[in-house]
Amino acid sequence: MASKPKTITAVSIPCCTLLNESRKRRDRLNAFYQMTMVLNVSNRMNIARYTGLIAGALVATYIIVESPFSGMSMNPARTFGSAFNARIWNSLWIYFTAPPLGMLLAAEGYLRLKGARSVLCAKLHHHNHQRCIFKCNFG
Question: Average pLDDT in the 54-58 region?
Answer without folding.
Answer: 91
